[in-house]
Amino acid sequence: SFDENNVTISPLWINDQLKVEGTYDLKTRKGRINADAEKLHIEHEIVDLDSNIDIKTVLDGNKTSVNGVIILLGGHIHYDLGQKTYASDSDIIIVQDIKEKEASPFMDGLSASVQIKTIKPLIYKQGNVDIEAAVDLSVYKAEESELMVLGSVEILKGGSYTFEGKKFILDKSYIYFTGNPNKPLLEASVHYKSLNHLITIMITGSADAPNINFASKPSLTREQILSIILFDSEAGAGTNSGEDMMKMMGGAMAKSALADLGVQLDYLVLGEGKSVEVGKKLTDKITIIYVNDEVSSVKLKYEHGKRTQSVIGVSEVSQSYDILYKKDF
């Protein structure tokens, strides 16, 4: 309702669940708005969620202060990994992406302190991932500053990730947020039970440069552990270095992740430095491969039989034709 100087909300119901009440003085530009819900249901293509909401907003000219608590009562996350964007290297600036920041009086004058917690775990089950997570976060913003996310997401023990047909079981793990929501810290531990060994992989550090440590019972070297994960046998440790197998594992995991995103690659190799080879089968016998290296090139591989293949390579500086013969020893 409106009168000469005031706007009054008493109350406004959204979906018969969220009650909004408040007043705003048009002359002084001051007001207060409260939003409360015992159980607000949100159904969307990326989430199906019930929440308890208690948010209070204070308006004072160009300044807006938002404070309160959101308690997640439980739900399912349907977020498509294909929509995920990854933070680029902070040292690299793409000139075409530079845009002059437009002034935003609302954002400059906004302050916020909102706690987000879960009572029941959120369920994420999609593709090779099956996990439950508990959230304890604070969204914080001071005037004239960037928004910050503080707190953690706990991945509950017993979740799983299936990779190359092997099921890795998670211990209790955490994603920590220390400010920039695009740069969380990881503390994760997963187990894989092979025929004769229990393998543990521990991941710590930042998401763009994680530290990965391997352990097993009975004890194995890192090369032997990687060999079991990649080849189901310790024998690969004798013919491949740990660095080579880490590249193989990285390539296999990248291929698996790309498959989850709907990108079907038939060939993927991570080489020295930042060399990457990706390929797609054109027919049962012909594969086209793009090589991203210091000098980018294209290969066309033709399989004559189980042991013999021809590879034609073309780049800006050279052309090649190779005949490869494979023999088992």
- Total number of β-strand segments? 21
Q: Which outline best applies? A: elongated
Main beta sheet: 15 strands, mixed
Mean pLDDT: 80
Q: Runs with pLDDT <50, length 5+?
A: 82-88
Count of helix runs: 3
Radius of gyration: 27 Å
User: Which percent band covers the strand fraction?
Assistant: over 45%
* Distance, first to last CA: 85 Å
Percent helix, as a range, is: 10-25%
**Helix-strand pattern, N to C?**
EEEEEHEEEEEEEEEEHHEEEEEE
Alpha-beta content class: mainly beta
Walk me through this protein's architecture.
With 329 residues, the protein is mostly beta strands. 10% of the residues lie in helices and 54% in strands. It has helices at 105-108, 222-231, 242-260, and strands spanning 6-14, 18-25, 30-44, 47-60, 63-77, 110-118, 122-126, 129-141, 148-155, 160-163, 166-170, 173-179, 185-193, 198-206, 210-217, 267-270, 276-281, 286-292, 297-303, 308-315, 319-325. It has a 15-stranded mixed beta sheet that branches. It has a 6-stranded antiparallel beta sheet with strand order 16-17-18-19-20-21. The model is unreliable at 82-88 (pLDDT under 50).
List the helices and strands and how they pair.
Layout: E1 6-14, E2 18-25, E3 30-44, E4 47-60, E5 63-77, H1 105-108, E6 110-118, E7 122-126, E8 129-141, E9 148-155, E10 160-163, E11 166-170, E12 173-179, E13 185-193, E14 198-206, E15 210-217, H2 222-231, H3 242-260, E16 267-270, E17 276-281, E18 286-292, E19 297-303, E20 308-315, E21 319-325
Parallel strand pairs: 5-6, 5-7
Antiparallel strand pairs: 1-2, 2-3, 3-4, 4-5, 6-8, 7-8, 8-9, 8-10, 9-12, 10-11, 11-13, 12-13, 13-14, 14-15, 16-17, 17-18, 18-19, 19-20, 20-21
Helix pairs in contact: 2-3
